[in-house]
Design goal:
The chain is elongated, with a radius of gyration of 36 Å. The chain is of the alpha+beta class. The strands form three sheets. It has a five-stranded mixed barrel with strand order 4-7-6-12-11. A five-stranded mixed beta sheet has the order 9-10-14-5-13. Strands 2-3-1-15 form a four-stranded antiparallel beta sheet. The chain is built from 17 helices and 15 strands. Helix 2 (about 20-40) runs parallel beside helix 12 (about 425-450), helix 4 packs antiparallel against helix 5 and helix 4 packs across helix 10.
Length: about 600
């Protein structure tokens, strides 16, 4: 007798407090809605096919003489560089992701810089090591300091102020040095051995004049007046440069040759923009053989970036660091420039020979790894070409979104009509559950846009429409299990209690199969099809949450109400419409025994 009592107690306890489950899901819904409004993202982020824009597919190729260069590490590095380049132009919410093993998809939303971003995507990244000639604050509005002083004039700078990058370059065996003070000066261009002739760089009046006079028939060197005019023009552009403007930053590298002085922008370790005048490229990115981020356990504890150069790169790097080591700040710094932007500007205290060097300073693991990836990209044995380019206008995207919403509304309307016609009063529970599921799906999609970059595209809309049927199917399974119990002669409340365990197993198995299919589809497919798989998987998980925390508790509460409990003809539990027959009861026969005397 103890076992049946325990079973009844467990059932009663499970059905006795359905209000807690309803309160939990309502609190979650309110929290998600509040987070959506507080974050300012009140609508899901739209993909290219709905918002309009350009989608570019880049295919990777091995450079001549290289094998097995197309791998995950190199592709991920290429993605980070392309994303940095596109977003650096001010293109908001651009998406860059790998597709398969050798494709990169670049989605550029509608924007003023869309055309320029497309041009940048198809070009190969350029990495150079350039000597720093002049350094100043990158925001003219915030900079109140005097203009740069010419070379040779004294320059006093506040001691202890870190350089823009805050790093230092040393040989692996050299001692640790402190950050260099920030200085502002200008000088002629510095050149490494084997670099272009002085006529291709900033002028040096003494050497240029002598070389032009020593060799008969040689081309005359540029005049001092022309060189001065070029230097003045460069200084004028430098003074006006506002590094906080993405368009101005993009113009600094437009049409600039490696052999010419250039302007550049970069952020210091405080996140503030700095602007530079840089000399001709002394070392190219292809001269870097290998770069990696390592944790220094022997010297000053912290992350650092190690570099190894090729044979030619070692000679070039030794030559330029030998020249920089004799200079004053900031001319003892060299800028590592990627696509016209300074990613690091370590200073040099001695000539670095031997083919390797270290950059240490204000690094954490992520920043050290990022710099190492950028340095490695200069020698990345990959090239890309545009395989497909698809442009979708805003009008076409709006039409597709409108068509998708109409299809979803038609599908939802058909489901509601079926539920009302067949389940009558029970349809109100199903409709309320669908509304809760829709609200949860909408708020989560709106929050996933800025957090993980989820974009609602047309396949994702299709996945949400399919999910309507999956969610409604769970309600139908539950309702039919309850009806089966009523047909067996039980009243509504026991029918709900006994029907739920049977329905629960069926719902979990069905949703597990749907989620497994969505997960496999997400893994084996790429591109927009993943949007369908992601939405289908998300709504399948939400179906389980809604059925367990909303539909079942609400059904338990309404089963106590007279309208449902008495089997009203519009409740969906009418005994006549369900074909319920009264249970057969066996009558006792009363026998009279005659006592024999």
């Amino acid at each position: 007798m103890a076992a049946p009592k325990k079973s009844r107690s467990r059932t009663k306890g499970a059905q006795g407090k359905p209000g807690r489950s309803l309160a939990l899901i309502l609190i979650a819904l309110v929290a998600l809605t509040g987070g959506m409004f507080l974050s300012g993202n009140t609508s899901p982020r739209l993909g290219i096919d709905l918002a309009g824009g350009t989608s570019i597919t880049l295919k990777a190729k091995n450079t001549p003489g290289q094998k097995n260069a197309i791998n995950k590490t190199n592709m991920d590095t290429a993605v980070s560089i392309i994303e940095r380049r596109v977003n650096g132009l001010g293109v908001s919410e651009a998406e860059v992701q790998t597709q398969g093993s050798d494709n990169i998809i670049v989605n550029i939303p509608r924007g003023t810089n869309e055309k320029q971003a497309r041009e940048q995507v198809g070009t190969t990244a350029q990495l150079y090591f350039r000597p720093v000639l002049t350094l100043a604050e990158g925001d003219p509005a915030a900079s109140k300091s005097p203009s740069a002083k010419p070379s040779g004039s004294p320059s006093k700078t506040p001691a202890g102020k870190p350089s823009a990058g805050g790093e230092k370059a040393t040989s692996p065996a050299s001692p640790t040095a402190s950050n260099s003070p920030q200085g502002r000066a200008a000088s002629g261009a510095l050149r490494a051995d084997g670099d272009p002739s002085p006529s291709a760089s900033a002028p040096d009046a003494k050497s240029d004049g002598k070389k032009g006079a020593d060799k008969p028939g040689a081309s005359p060197a540029p005049s001092d007046s022309a060189a001065a005019a070029e230097a003045t023009a460069l200084q004028a552009r430098f003074a006006k440069l506002n590094c906080t403007d993405p368009a101005a930053r993009a113009e600094t590298s437009t049409g600039v040759k490696p052999t010419d002085p250039s302007l550049a922008c970069g952020k210091d370790n405080r996140g503030q923009w700095q602007k530079y005048i840089l000399g001709p490229a002394a070392v190219q990115g292809t001269d870097v053989d290998k770069a990696s981020a390592v944790y220094d356990t022997q010297g000053a504890a912290g992350w650092k970036v190690t570099m190894e150069f090729t044979g030619k790169g070692s000679k070039k790097f030794a030559a330029i660091t030998g020249q920089l080591a004799t200079k004053q700040s900031p001319q003892n710094q060299f800028a590592i420039v990627l696509d016209g932007e300074v990613v690091s500007d370590p200073y040099v205290r001695e000539a670095l020979s031997g083919g390797s060097a270290e950059i240490s300073g204000h690094f954490d693991q992520q920043s050290a790894q990022d710099l190492a990836n950028m340095l490695s990209y200069g020698a990345l044995p990959l090239s890309f070409h545009e395989e497909t380019v698809t442009t979708i206008t805003a009008a076409l995207g709006g039409e597709q979104l409108h068509a998708g919403l109409i299809a979803g509304a038609i599908g939802l309307a058909l489901v509601v009509i079926y539920l009302v016609a067949y389940y009558r009063g029970l349809s109100m529970i199903a409709i309320a559950s669908l509304l809760v599921s829709a609200a949860l799906t909408y708020t989560i999609m709106a929050l996933l846009g800025p957090t993980i970059g989820f974009a609602l595209n047309m396949p994702a809309v299709c996945g949400a429409i399919v999910a309507i049927g999956i969610t409604a199917d769970s309600f139908i399974v539950f309702f039919e299990r309850i009806r089966d119990e009523i047909r067996e002669g039980r009243s509504l409340q026991p029918a709900v209690a006994r029907g739920w365990p049977r329905a629960r197993r069926t719902i979990l198995v069905s949703d597990f199969v749907s989620f497994l299919a969505a997960a496999v589809l997400f893994i084996v497919t790429v591109g927009k099809v993943q949007g369908f798989a992601f939405t289908l998987g998300l709504t399948t998980l939400l179906d389980v949450v809604v059925v367990f925390l909303f539909t079942r508790p609400l059904m338990t509460i309404l089963a106590r109400k007279k309208f449902f409990n008495t089997g009203h003809r519009w409740s969906g539990f009418d005994p006549k419409s369900l074909g319920v027959k009264p249970p057969l009861r066996r009558s006792r026969r009363v026998t009279t025994q005659t006592k024999e005397a």
